[in-house]
TrEMBL record:
Entry GO CC: cytoplasm
Cofactor note: Binds 2 manganese ions per subunit.
Stated name of the protein: Arginase
Gene coding for it: rocF
EC number(s) recorded for this UniProt protein: 3.5.3.1
UniProt-listed GO biological process terms: arginine metabolic process; urea cycle
NCBIfam families with a match to the protein in the record: rocF_arginase (TIGR01229)
Pathway as given in its UniProt record: Nitrogen metabolism; urea cycle; L-ornithine and urea from L-arginine: step 1/1
Enzyme class (EC, first level): hydrolase
InterPro entries: Arginase (IPR014033), Ureohydrolase (IPR006035), Ureohydrolase_dom_sf (IPR023696), Ureohydrolase_Mn_BS (IPR020855)
Keyword Manganese: yes
Alphabetic keyword roster: Arginine metabolism, Hydrolase, Manganese, Metal-binding
């Protein structure tokens, strides 16, 4: 399989570092971009013949480590980081490049996904968002037990949150429930669960994957993609089982194993529609010899077309 065939942007790939843990309860994800670079991400993608533009790191406010105010921790800082990331991501999409956001915690998806949605509206393209995560991230100020905004990006993208976050992309909501597929979910708060059901989000939780297998799960999640659909993958590293990916702040046992994760990525690559990517919640302070970052790079290679397939096409 040709790596070049998997990418819509003929101008190559852009790496955008967003070194912040301002939305999380556990510090350390701010070091994620460096760990991914050390693990050889740019070199791995370049092997597919794609120009790689490493834009370096965005520079935003520090993590003030303050308690929640009215159900949100660090709202002003999270808004600033996401506004910067929105502009950076949108700029690379308009240049015809495939942006990869190197997080940082998952609150950053508010900026990246709102930019992708805005670009798709401008281009008249359908959008599909694959949310690979142990958590639904559909909390709101009224539902959250912690106030941490990395548990709220999906809700904000669907228009449920403070205006400074829901209006990042110029349209509220940035996403509609029918554009979202959540995969690998296994830790959801009770109020959050009811909210997800009310909105009608398609969720393929770990029980579904256990019962039906990853192949069937991905066939369902990718069903209906058109030739011009933009596919955005938001990969929270805690999607993976902590036995293979210990370097995250919110580990949840019972996630996909190595081969299941590889199959997930290979089937996404097979569509040829990958248009943008987040890699978030990697926490090197909790990792073992950078193995989680190296695994993330391995999976990204599969997203770009690396395959163990030995059968004839």
């Amino acid at each position: 399989m040709s790596g070049n065939a998997q990418v819509q942007g003929p101008q190559g790939v852009s790496l955008i570092g967003a070194p912040t843990d301002v939305g999380a309860s556990c510090i350390g994800a701010r070091m994620g971009p460096s760990a991914l670079r050390v693990a050889g991400l740019a070199q791995a993608i370049a092997r597919f013949g794609l120009p790689v533009h490493d834009l370096g790191d965005l520079h935003g406010p520090d993590n003030p480590a303050q308690p929640a105010i009215d159900g949100h921790r660090h709202l002003a800082e999270v808004a600033r980081w996401n506004a910067m990331l929105h502009e950076a991501t949108l700029g690379e999409l308009r240049r015809g490049r495939l942006p990869i956001v190197l997080g940082g915690d998952h609150c950053l998806a508010m900026g990246s996904v709102s930019a992708v949605a805005r670009h798709c509206r401008e281009q008249g393209k359908p959008l599909r968002v694959l949310w690979l995560d142990a958590h639904a991230d559909f909390n709101t100020a009224a539902l959250t037990p912690s106030g941490n905004l990395h548990g709220m990006p999906m809700a904000c993208l669907c228009g449920h949150g403070p205006e400074v976050l829901t209006q990042l992309g110029g349209q509220v909501p940035a996403l509609h429930p029918g554009q979202i597929r959540q995969i690998g979910i296994r830790s959801v708060d009770e109020g959050e669960k009811r909210f997800v059901h009310t909105l009608g989000i398609e969720v393929y939780d770990m029980r579904f994957i256990d019962e039906m297998g990853m192949r069937h799960t991905m066939q369902q999640a990718l069903e209906g993609l058109g030739a011009d659909t933009h596919l955005h993958v938001s990969l929270d590293v805690d999607f993976l089982d902590p036995d293979i990916a210990p370097g995250v702040g919110t580990t949840v046992r019972g996630g996909p194993n190595y081969r299941e994760a590889q199959l997930c990525m290979e089937m996404i690559a097979d569509t040829g529609r990958l248009g943008s990517l987040d890699v978030v919640e990697l926490n090197p302070a909790l990792d073992v010899r950078n193995q989680t970052a190296e695994l993330a790079v391995d999976l990204i290679e599969s997203l770009f077309g690396k395959s163990t397939l030995m059968r004839r096409g």
